[in-house]
């Protein structure tokens, strides 16, 4: 039911001018003989235009949405192979500057000589090794996808990637790597080694990657004991780090000061100490869902002084009430699937400009755990409030005071009736901002609802009342 996640720009590129087809060369030469030097001039102009297109190719943004794939623009047709290049292996295709060998049954990296190629896709094959010199014929490669193969760490040559001076994006998801390959190109902006068998990250593993922006290492065997506190020291540009589905018990030390988004879901984290985010003043998003965190193990100063932290996800932990000492800048708080019984009074009172999205579905909230001051500080700012799948027997107090609320979920509770002024404030004229109201799967007798209960809501079609558990 959770909503959210704004659009992230994807990588875009400008299509290079198509190569001339060799089959037409003889016919074109005859035409040039008849027209004198006119054909030569046209061919020179076409070649100059082609060079301008290639030089002006746009580089895409290195960011992506919740798995951030970086893909070239969709092909608009198949271009002929460049002159002088070897034939492509069976199952491979060429689309302008991209060679695709996706699920082609390859057991080794094919020998290719094509300096104009900038993207190589070898996804979903049975490749086991990357020997030195494997990409010598592709010196201008910017994007390389080796995901879902059977590559092992011993199978990667010490200098396999060293000559790829322009490589910006490397995907090695779904292989059998136990360590990060050595001598990776310093131009890398995105490195993905998810779903491997990484055992450790030492001080040298990422030491040359000072332009790296995105690092994804999810689904490995990393822990606080196997990741050096100096592992991220050289990553001066890193802003996006994914370490989910590993074996961390604490937040890893030595996070770079440039970090903006940190994902640590599905680990074994039990506490958040005061020093965890001391040097991460730019951090904007922290995801800690599916861990073992209790509110008593969150230090009071863990993140209250973070000035840019807008989104925290603590879903599916061991919380019994909404944590105190949340950052002042927080806009988005996700607490789904805990055992929360209470929203303490004034817990949001210090926030500016104010919390906008609060998700408390699948908890243990009862009428005793929510009162009028529970939402104090968020009455003017809350846009979405999810309280479904709890133990509420009545509409929580203060709902009618929420001036910005667009989406309210109260379905799957134990609510029996809706009184006038619980949703609409009779003392105020004008329509409510509420656009979606869910009250289904309660114990409400819809025929007994007062005609004034929803008088402020512009469209009754935005109200979901059926079915009820009666």
From TrEMBL:
This is Extracellular matrix protein 2. Signal peptide: none annotated. InterPro entries: ECM2, Leu-rich_rpt, Leu-rich_rpt_typical-subtyp, LRR_dom_sf. Promotes matrix assembly and cell adhesiveness. It is found in: Secreted, Extracellular space, Extracellular matrix. It comes from the Eukaryota. Residues 25-55 have a biased composition (Acidic residues). One of its GO terms (cellular component) is extracellular matrix. Residues 69-89 have a biased composition (Pro residues). Belongs to the small leucine-rich proteoglycan (SLRP) family. SLRP class I subfamily. One of its GO terms (biological process) is positive regulation of cell-substrate adhesion. It holds the Pfam family LRR_8. Keywords: Extracellular matrix, Glycoprotein, Leucine-rich repeat, Repeat, Secreted, Signal. Residues 1-91 are annotated as: Disordered. Gene3D superfamilies: Ribonuclease Inhibitor. GO terms for molecular function: collagen V binding; heparin binding.
